[in-house]
Amino acid sequence: MKPGARIAAVIELYDGWTHTRDDADRVVSGYFGSRRYIGGGDRREISERFYNLIRHQARLGWWLAEMGYEFQDGRARMIAELVLHDGLSKADIEDRFSGEQFCPETLHPNEKHLINKLADKTLDHDAQPGAVKTELPKWLYAELMKLHHENLSAEMAAYNQPAKLDLRVNRLRGTVEDAIKSLKADGIKDIERTPFAPNGLRLPLGLNMLVTAAYKDGLIEIQDEASQICVKLVDAKPGMTILDMCAGGGGKTLGIAADMRGKGRILACDTHGGRLDNSRKRARRAGAGDCIQQRIIADERDSWLRNKSGFFDRVLLDVPCSGLGTLRRNPALRWRIGQRDLRTLMAQQSKILKAGAAKVTKGGRLIYATCSIMPEENERLIETFMRDRKDFKPVPINEIWPDAPKSVPVPGGKDKPWLRLSPNVHGTDGFFVAVFERTAKGKVK
């Protein structure tokens, strides 16, 4: 494709996304799915430019308003992006907006005037409000300022960078060294070990793992290091009986099975049958199918699951959440999640936490996890749980993970014994994990 044709595709994608409440990834998949003729290299550039428009949305909007430009559509934002981010000259932009087949129509006089006014400027400006600088809705900026204070700019700068590709090596199929050797044989370069997760590998973006022998043989799974750390904090042992109550696609279930060396029983539950169907396929490929049982449940009050009270050594609750910890991969989420959505999620999380706690045997552990950065979904909910359930005590993270690398700021105090991960500090997705041990049978409330 010509550069102009790729630009036209980005504009079409962005305008399509802004006129729907649909997920940005789904918009991209649908766009390329109906245009099979677009090659892999073109797809990567179009996708990268589209997500950059979303990552730069607040600052681009601020500049257009500051310049007195009345349009805020994909075309206007793309022009501003090419000047402010890419540093292109008017002649370069005119070359792309040529009006040729599949390219954007030629520049209007007011667009040329906009380019002249933006020349020699960059995305950032001292006059931009804090919410604009950090690319956040005003309400979300105010909430996160309470958490990060003066560090918020650095935190959000990290969230605005694309994430690399993390893999977990499946120890049921081989070693980390086996995986590296296999990937290199398939021409994969620049393979790094993840700094914290012992079985993790980190690769550059844009690689297709699904065609590698390591993936087909079940030796690797695509999984962010934060999720791998969460699995480690489950502290699963061979022979245990474990409930993964919100199993989804089964990534953490497979990690738990590997830690159990395939010996024991894992019950993977979810309300979506399609997710569990995918997890069954993954379990067979990973060689973990014998110890994993999948079951569809109606909700956290499911009658079949209710009969399992006090039954499990470990209960993992990777609860439905805002997903705001995955902004590196899903930058559009910040513009799609609202305060009302957050309140709905918090009510659901509280119900799941209460139901999950009832399934833990005496001496067993409850692991609460989210890929959210919001205190309402994490610390505040956990604090309420600790007030209500005196039959559970928090387990400090450093007791579970005593050999954590020194570069990991693992909390260990009685007041805040949970773990909060972020791309700025750890290079992972944003993630929260809290672990509790049941000290008595207690009374289910």
TrEMBL record:
PANTHER family: NOP2 YEAST -RELATED NOL1/NOP2/FMU SUN DOMAIN-CONTAINING, RIBOSOMAL RNA SMALL SUBUNIT METHYLTRANSFERASE B-RELATED. S-adenosyl-L-methionine binds at D270, D299, D318. The keyword Nucleotide-binding does not apply. InterPro entries: MeTrfase_RsmB-F_NOP2_cat (IPR049560), MeTrfase_RsmB-F_NOP2_dom (IPR001678), RCMT (IPR023267), RsmB-like_ferredoxin (IPR054728), RsmB/NOL1/NOP2-like_CS (IPR018314), SAM-dependent_MTases_sf (IPR029063). Pfam families: Methyltr_RsmB-F (PF01189), RsmF-B_ferredox (PF22458). The active site is at C371 (nucleophile). Keywords: Methyltransferase, RNA-binding, S-adenosyl-L-methionine, Transferase. This is rRNA cytosine-C5-methyltransferase. Residues 155-439 form the SAM-dependent MTase RsmB/NOP-type domain. It comes from the Bacteria. SUPFAM superfamilies: S-adenosyl-L-methionine-dependent methyltransferases (SSF53335). Belongs to the class I-like SAM-binding methyltransferase superfamily. RsmB/NOP family. The keyword Signal does not apply.
